[in-house]
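quick one before i forget lol
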Amino acid sequence: MANEEDDPIIQEIDVFLARSLLEKLYLFQYPIRPASMTYDDVTHLSAKIKPKQQKVELEMAIDTLNPNYCRSKGEQIALNVDGTCTDETSTYSSKLMDKQTFCSSQAASNVSRYAAAVYKKGELHLTPLHGILQLRPSFTYLDKADAKHREREAANEGGDSSQDEAEDDVKQITVRFSRPETEQARQRRVQSYEFLQKRQAEEHWVHLHYYGLKDSRSEHERQYLFSQGHGLAENTELIKSPSEYLMMLMPPSVEEENDKPMAPSNVLSMAQLRTLPLADQIKILMKNVKVMPFANLMSLLGSGTDATAVLRCVQQVALLVQGNWVVKSDVLYPKDTSSPHSGVPAEVLCRGRDFVMWKFTQDRWVVRKEVAAVTKLCPEDVKDFLEHMSVARINKGWEFMLPYDEDFVKKHPDIVQRQQMLWMGIQAKLEKVYNLLKEHLTPKKQEAQSAHPLVVSGEQRVNMAKAKVKQNYGQLEKELQKQKAEMKSSDASAKMDVPNARVKEEPASLEEPMDTSAHSEGLNNGLVNGLHPAQGSPEPLNGHLPGGCIDRVAQELKAFVSSTFKKQFVLTLSELKRLFNLHLASLPPGHTLFSGISDKMLQDMVLDTGCKQILVPFPPQTAASPDELKVYALWEAGDTYDQHRQVLLEIFSKNYRVRRNVIQNQLSQECGEDLNKQEVDRVLKVSCCS
């Protein structure tokens, strides 16, 4: 209130809205006027406009008699543009640059907030602006000068070759037939810069007549800036409440759709997504993700969403495969579309993709060649189908990308049964279309077994061992009593005193055998977890090997580790296990190493043979497995490069990636000698990879 008292109202002004020049009034913003430019020289000025684009070109005269005008420069520019000859096509007929062209560009796309105001006799008259254009000098005459220069050079290079020689020249013509333009290609062409430039160039110029500032016609047009009537009927827009009037002056900013950046068709923010109906939300999510568990779908839809409504909607756009929802083929390939690779219609693509989905309902693995042989589609289309819902595994095929969702299957048995009936109908259609054989309908035994891993976890293996010990405890007790009776009846010299002998029930060793199946699948030597199941290897008693057997295993393992690190000075645990599997495959059945070697035993033996673990600081976002992050190196090999190798390993214990020149400088400083390129290469070759 104090501020309002200090700032009293001095004068009240009536405001009127003029409508005579509505949608006709433009504001031109000129650049700073040079001293030699005369804007009011009407005899040498022309104007033209493209109304749809709101583009204006003005041609203004330059005062060549002005002392600030450089006449020699003007003559040189006119000579470069028009040459020596003067005709109707010349830009500068006076052989002097005596005019300048200005071209406009839009200063603001939304001018609804701007108006031209005229104050007269205590009244303020406002006229809304239709456009604000900035005028900038146009230098198209320089392009014309360059074109003339190129024409002169081409004429000079041509020499005095005659027209007959040119006519005798025979040129080979290549005829190409364009493919039918797809809808996507047409949209890209329409949105291209070249197409927009062509459309703009097609609009014809409308020539205008310029009236000077003091011309009588200009005076007459300026009168339209004033409101023609002061009655209430003419200014109903200004009879508003204070809040409405303020809203008119400063409306809330709403971006036009044309001003928004064009986002890709498959990009939609979560805020925009949740404004759509539930069915559309689910369709968009499934179309983009393609395979999704029901729990993930519910989390994306937000809290408070009815699960029953989601289940009802998701069944319209997706099918259940191994407890997970996979988007339907007709959603990805709508009617009247075709393959971008082969041009095959959408109906054929849907049948092929349905066959792939149906195969995954039968098994976790699908072979790409089998799909291509049945569907008769090109490899690119088949690869697209498989990439939608599976992951390629080397030498195995394509595995369904998500694990079997048992929780959903247990919670919703009615939906599972309904989906099974749908798949039975789809299978019947596929049998008719593709003439499926019996081998296609029933999953292979080998494939069915491959769905379950051969290697169990360490915790499962310990539990299985405990259960086996408890199960066989009674049998072991009977066998022990039988042995005691036999020992008592035997000869005195051969008797063994076994008083109060009992079999102690101990838990199986927590030291799990080394996981070797990942590297030994391709060996075809009957190995499972490093063991020959058919041969009689030494059996551990209650999880422990006999003492003599342990010594032999340790000796054999130490010999393998020593020989391996003498050949390759630096190894990861993953690579060492792979080499150990190859070594096992070369051994005869029943060898002591088949008794089971754990990861801990292997790592302890590596450290016992003089090797050290190098703690390489790998980046946190690395995709390497834990075994690949464990690096071991032979610290002393007894050769001349021990010191260099140790310096190099110290370097890599601080950074996992180092430049070659840094390594060479560090080796020279630490070892006190300059190593040549061959010596550095040898140290690097055995210690790291580039």
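fyi Residues 548-687 form one domain.
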